[in-house]
Request: fold
Amino acid sequence: GAGVSQSPRYKVTKRGQDVALRCDPISGHVSLYWYRQALGQGPEFLTYFNYEAQQDKSGLPNDRFSAERPEGSISTLTIQRTEQRDSAMYRCASSLGQAGELFFGEGSRLTVL
Amino acid sequence: QQQVKQSPQSLIVQKGGISIINCAYENTAFDYFPWYQQFPGKGPALLIAIRPDVSEKKEGRFTISFNKSAKQFSLHIMDSQPGDSATYFCAAINSGNTPLVFGKGTRLSVIA
Reply:
C-alpha cells in the first residue's frame, strides 16, 4: 500500500489477555518504529528496528511488551497479560533512512477493560 | 523528564494571523528538529524540519526559527487558515543515537 498500515484499528480486550498489534510499513522502508500516544499527549517511543534487527527497546515499559520484525518488513507488537494502564493508541511509523523523518500509520487503539 | 518542552498547550488565532509555537530542549547532541502536524483521527505527519547549522527555514507559510545558544526553536505559521487547525508537535533527535522524542503538543484553532 501507499502508507503505513496498522491492524486492528480498534481492539477491546479484557484485563489479563494477550494482544498482538500488526504494522505493515511503507514498501522499501528500512526502519520501523513503535510509539504509544496517550490522549492529548505526544507520541512516546517504545522500540525500533532496522531491517529485522531490533536496535533499541529502551522505551518498552516492562517485560510484558515485546516486538518483532522477523523478515524485515511486517512487525508485531505483543502485549502479554494486558492491564488497564496499557490502554492507549499504539502507532507504528516507518522511515526510508533519515532518522526523524517518520511516516506514521493511523494507529491501533487498545482498550483494556 | 521531558526532553522537549513545548508551549503553549493550546492556541487560538484569527484567520490571517500568525501562529507561534515554541519548544525548548536540553540535549545539545540533538541534530535534527522536525515539526509534525496531526489532524484528528490521523497519525502525525512531518511538516518541516531544521538542522542546528541554520537559524531559519521557510517552506511556504511555515517557518522554523532556531536559536542554538538558547536551545530553543519555534514554528511560525503565517496567514493562518482554518485548515491549519490541528495539533502540532515539535520533536528532536540525535541521529543514530537516540530515538525521535516529541513534545506534548499544541492544539491550534484558527477561527474565521
In short: DSSP finds no helices and eleven strands in chain B. The interface with chain A takes residues 6, 32, 34, 41-46, 49, 89, 91, 93, 95-96, 99-105 of chain B (CB under 8 Å). The radius of gyration of chain B is 13 Å.
